[in-house]
Amino acid sequence: MPLHLSRAIFFLNPKSKPPIPMANLSSMASPSPKSRLRGVVFDMDGTLTVPVIDFPAMYRAVLGEEEYLRIRAENPSGIDILHHIENWSPEKQRKAYETIADYERQGLDRLQIMPGAAELCGFLDSKKIRRGLITRNVKDAVNLFHQRFGITFSPALSREFRPYKPDPAPLLHICSVWDVQPDEVMMVGDSLKDDVKCGKEAGAFTCLLDETGRYDSPRFANVDHKPDFKVSSLAEVHTILETHFHLSP
């Protein structure tokens, strides 16, 4: 979906005139006037929780080294492992899902909340802004997150909801449940290929969490979907919400 001029963000490199694909919070132009925001939808792994799953190792275990390298080279935004195995034979799929589930279980044992997540959720609650969650992890992982950290999201959609992201269907479903328009919602996540694509195709605002500066690499310069905002911490999301949006229940 094309980005409306009223919500376009220009990414400027102070050392040269040509624009660069993504930049830090401090270099972004504010939407004018402030857009209304009624809900925020979060990714879970790597966004609300500290990254603990070794995804490259998981992909290698599922695909094999040669196939992993080939697919990674063809997909600069990242590998969509769930989509890739959809057309495999039932037996091959079963083994792949078992491998994926094993890596996810290991991640649950080390589950930690992301710094700033509790504070951001508290801020949203104080403004009566809805909080939703979309993850490609399983429902058990979502339930454990809710129980362990005492923070709940509703709706909270796991990969049992089909089609899963990056398809926009989960986000559009949440908008329908909330009775809000997609352009009144922000999708926050750490993946260009899953979270940003899902949000952009639904028509929502998008915010990419990039703690390490991974997405500053030139290999992400020509991706199809670019975020409206890019931050290095959840604390910066708080700043974006107060600075660029009119927060309304």
TrEMBL record:
<dbReference type="InterPro" id="IPR006439">
    <property type="entry name" value="HAD-SF_hydro_IA"/>
</dbReference>
<protein>
    <submittedName>
        <fullName>HAD hydrolase, subfamily IA</fullName>
    </submittedName>
</protein>
<dbReference type="InterPro" id="IPR036412">
    <property type="entry name" value="HAD-like_sf"/>
</dbReference>
<dbReference type="InterPro" id="IPR023214">
    <property type="entry name" value="HAD_sf"/>
</dbReference>
<dbReference type="GO" id="GO:0016787">
    <property type="term" value="F:hydrolase activity"/>
</dbReference>
<dbReference type="Pfam" id="PF00702">
    <property type="entry name" value="Hydrolase"/>
</dbReference>
<dbReference type="GO" id="GO:0009507">
    <property type="term" value="C:chloroplast"/>
</dbReference>
<keyword id="KW-0378">Hydrolase</keyword>
